[in-house]
Amino acid sequence: MHRTKLLIAALAVAATTAACAPVVGQNGFQAIDTRPTDIVAGTDTRQTVLTKLGSPSTTSTFESDTIWYYMSQVTEKYTYNRPQVTQRAITQITFNDAGQVSDVTTLGLSDGERVSMNGRETPTRGRQLTILEQLLGNVARGQLPRTDENEPGQRRPD
Fold first, then answer.
1. Smallest Cα–Cα separation from 88: which of 115, 69, 62?
2. Listed residue (73, 138, 139) closest to 112, CA to CA
3. Where are the beta strands (DSSP E) in the chain?
4. Which of 24, 39, 106, 141 is the most buried (most CB within 10 A)?
5. 48-94: per-residue pLDDT in tens?
6. DSSP of 68-105
7. Phi/psi zone of residue 117: left (φ > 0), alpha (ψ -120 to 50 degrees), beta?
């Protein structure tokens, strides 16, 4: 009897500690052989960067040929909570006109800024209809004309 209680207690402890382990997820660029920080300014070119790292995660919107970005992040999620970003790495590789790397900048999680969305709404013109007004609003409208003078294509007298 003592042995089964000890076994049940051990299983309960194992189950509770397993529930506390986070689910780790990696998103974005994942370096295999070469890291983006291993790129050397002045010696590497677009072709060597493509060979070492592959295609970039994204390019600059306005200077698509001169700035490449390699982005990755690690998230942890505990049971029913939202995922939390624990690591983020954004490497910006800038090329000059000759196609050589002129600058390599690495940004982390601490370099980011939180942007809060504005919750205000733009008011619309007109009045708000209640549910009854919406349901019964068209009951008396759209009746057929009661005079013989109306012909198709003619304007109805209001």
1. 69
2. 73
3. 23-28, 58-59, 67-77, 84-95, 101-108
4. 39
5. 999 888 888 888 888 778 899 999 999 999 888 888 999 998 999 99
6. EEEEEEEEEE-TTSPPEEEEEEEEEEEE-TTSBEEEEE
7. beta
Burial of 106 (0-12, 13-18, 19+ CB in 10 A): middle
Give whole-number Cα distances, 64 to 18, 51, 52, 56, 93, in Å.
46, 19, 19, 11, 11
pLDDT at 143: 58
Contacts of 47 (CB under 8 A, 6+ apart): 99
At 155 the pLDDT is 62
pLDDT(2) > 90: no
0.90 exceeded by pTM: no
72's tokens: 């990755």
Burial of 49 (0-12, 13-18, 19+ CB in 10 A): buried
